[in-house]
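Hi R.,

Here's the chain you asked about this morning:
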Amino acid sequence: MGRRFSINVFAVIRGAGVALLFLVITLCLAITILPPFLDRIYYRGPVSRHFDGVHFHNPDGVIDTPAPPGTSRQGFIARWLLGNDDRPPWPEAIAVKPARPAPFAAPRGMVATWVGHATVLVQAAGLNILTDPIWSDYASPLPPLGPKRVAQPGIRFDDLPKIDLIVLSHNHYDHMDLPTLKRLWERDRPKIVTSLGNDAILKANGIPATALDWGQSVSGAALNGLAPEAVIQCGNYEHCPDYQVHVTRNHHWGSRWGTDRNRALWSSFVIGTRAGNIFFAGDTGAGDMAWPYEAARYGPIRLALIPIGAFRFWPGQMQSDAHIGPAQAVEVFKRLGASTAIPIHWGTFRLSYEQWDTPPRMLEQYLRCAGIERKRFAPLRVGQSLLVPTVSPAPIGPKRCDERAIRALE
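And the predicted structure, written out as tokens:
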């Protein structure tokens, strides 16, 4: 009996040793095989100021994601993934009253509805435009892991009007949401404009798109199969392809898996419509802060969509390389010369350290510091619509900077 027991114990130990050895070999193979397997070549083209033939980069500086003071980057990422990084708590859910938008805006009208995060429905001169649409509950490759939506979309998907145009800034999961894009493509066949390389990801999922480099433009006529310089005359202005999309520079990075980092380009956009120009910043850090001036060269901007959130990864941080905070957002607004702006990229997915309402509260303080009227750059509730005023220069009034109030938000 004793001998049989000893043999059984030995067999168990040997089996465990074999299993452990197999696990170690598997992990070694995974470390060797998986990174190249998960890498993707989304774009091939000539070398440029921001493309070295393999990867894209920011010509105004490298994106760095340092760890909080006194910690390692690996430890910080592990704590972030496990939800053990001392981030201020967010509400489990935010009450949302979904909008029911009209089918389209008037010939010279412009209405914007914040759906949440970087998703905005802009209805301009009969066109229906969506920016970085996401209706999914998780911004993640592996839901239910990853950031979860705390505010339901401000428009129910089935209440969306027919979408004519989608602009897609880059390939992160909170901006390129393939389930949503598939639903929109199957329902409306919208034109999709993005930056170089992202079209490969979309086309692999059955979604056609037009990809352009920074500084390139495409007309609505060309997107709809007409001569690029065709004169568009629509008796009925609804869904009339009389528009231009300009792909413009910003300061960010791209990846779907980590090992495919910067294989596709990121961008902002200027959309020219008969109702006026719309600027969508996408997801961006400050960089050299020359890119807002570049966008402003396309003409007066009636509406700007500017991110203000996910800028803080430890207490007191005011911006990160990849995301601007409210202070930089106000400066972007000024450099664009925009008439009206809507703050986006906050209050929907918890991506960083700041409290749920820190970005809009801080924005209000920095607008006062700059002497800009709050109504020119006021936060919307998710589901709230704004009848965008016509273009007029934003006056600069008395500057009342409350440093104490700003420090209280740090």
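Confidence is low (pLDDT under 50) at residues 24-34.

Let me know if you need anything else.
M.
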